[in-house]
Amino acid sequence: MTTFNNLEWTRASKVYEITDERIQITTEPNTDLWQRTYYGFQNDNAPVLQMSTSEDYFSFTVKTNFDTKRRFDQCGVVIYLNSDNWLKASIEYENDDFQRLGSVVTNAGYSDWASFDIDSNIKSMWYRLSRRESDYCIEYSEDGLNFKQMRIAHLHEGQGEIKFGVYACSPEDSSFEATFTEMNVGPCQWKAHV
Fold first, then answer.
1. Please, what's the b/e burial string for 23-43 (b: 16 or more CB within 10 A of its CB; e: otherwise)?
2. What is the pLDDT of residues 35-75, one digit of tens each?
3. Among candidates 105, 104, 27, which has minimal Cα distance to 66?
4. What tens digit of pLDDT does each residue of 104-163 get?
5. Comparing C-alpha atoms, which of 65, 64, 76, 69 is closest to residue 33?
6. Is residue 27 a contact partner of residue 66, using CB atoms and an 8 Å limit?
């Protein structure tokens, strides 16, 4: 794991542990990131742990392990600029049969959600978040080697210095442990379109 000395909480969880090998966050009930669309509510209280960069081209990878058990429990990667502008990717628990692997992009205070169903027995996932200036690519992998594209997105305020990292939350009355390992920042793996 790359050692990051510049990790900063946007909102710290009450219970967490950070070592050179892993980050562990215990979620608190009724925490989430969502803005307006469809549901009407605005939730902006999930723990977010990030680092800053002005690098226009890079990739950030991380492995997540989780024991989610209540609807919408989630953990994953995030770029959180402010309450109205951010993106996240995670697995959201739904029930004993399936959960949703998806991503949310929020621009100008409105969120969207793109997802697909996966088996509820999956309890770990790799993510790779790549930046090309103000455009971003999110990929996922079950083995850390073979990544598949989830989404390409633009953040209207995603230029210049940004913050990126990990988050975990429990939108309903729930709590679980999210563990992040094998974090790495390196050259951009999202190649230019030709």
1. bbbbbbeebbbbbeeeeeeeb
2. 988 887 888 999 999 999 999 999 999 999 999 999 999 99
3. 27
4. 999 999 999 999 999 999 999 999 999 999 999 999 999 999 999 999 999 999 999 999
5. 76
6. no
